[in-house]
Design brief:
By secondary structure, the chain is an alpha/beta fold. It has one domain: Rossmann fold. Helices cover 39% and strands 16% of the residues. A 3-stranded parallel sheet has the order 4-3-5, sandwiched between helices. The chain has a two-stranded antiparallel ribbon with strand order 1-2. The chain is globular. It starts with 21 loop residues before the first helix and ends in an 11-residue tail after the last helix.
Length: 152
């Protein structure tokens, strides 16, 4: 097998590939269409314009940096589809971190395996969804979360 020389593969297309980061491209779109709806999450009653979405992304990205998350580090997100999930996707991209999507149906042993295998430095989680009590499972897996200093 020949060595790979590109990090993408482009099949037949009339649209050229965009040679910029997700964050930079999002900024361009947000500047061009600040008052246009960018994210609608009906079950949460969320309707954010590009300007609002960008403001929230930047705030979350700053928070991740404050926690010490660095480019190339992995951050898990565990929960159902939500505005918070979309924010995490964009905020991690903004700072160059890698988003690790953790299946919201995972049980404790699956979460433990995924966390150990992926090397997540942090995990952002919903409290619960349906019968899954995410915080309880996180506390069972890492009891020190109840008492440790944030970021430790």
């Amino acid at each position: 097998m020949a060595a790979l020389t590109k990090s993408y593969s482009c099949g037949a297309s009339t649209r050229p590939i965009i040679y910029e980061t997700i964050g930079n491209h999002f900024d361009e779109v947000a500047a061009q269409f600040p008052d246009t709806e960018a994210l609608v999450v009906c079950h949460q009653g969320v309707r954010w314009t590009y300007a609002e979405f960008r403001e929230r992304i930047d705030a979350l990205a700053a928070g991740l940096l404050t926690l010490g998350i660095k480019p190339g580090e992995r951050v898990g997100v565990w929960g159902p589809n939500s505005s918070e999930w979309a924010l995490m996707q964009m905020a991690t991209a903004r700072i160059g971190a890698i988003l690790v999507s953790i299946n919201p149906a995972y049980r404790l042993y699956e979460l433990e395996y995924a966390m150990n295998k992926s090397g997540c430095r942090a995990i952002i989680s919903a409290e619960q969804f349906k019968t899954s009590k995410y915080l309880e499972m996180l506390y069972a897996l890492a009891p020190e979360l109840n008492t440790c200093v944030p970021g430790s």
